[in-house]
Amino acid sequence: SSSSSSSSAVVGVVADVEKGEKDPKKFSRLCCRPNEKTLALIMMVVFDFIGNYSAILCFKFTSVTSGTIIQTATVPISCTLGFLFMNRRYSRRHVVGAFVSMAALLFLIVCDSLEVNEEGNNVPHPDKNPRLGDALAFFAAICFSATNILQEYSIDSGVYQNEILAAFGFYGTLFAIVAIFAEHKWNFELLMNFFARIEHHDVMIYILTSVTLFASFASAYRALKYVDAGTFNVVLLQQSLLVGMVRFFGFEGGFSSTTQAVVFVGTFTVQAIGILVYATAGDVKHREETSGSESEKRSILLAAAKQ
Question: Given CA atoms 113, 119, 120, 126 in this order, what sign does their dihedral have?
Answer without folding.
Answer: negative
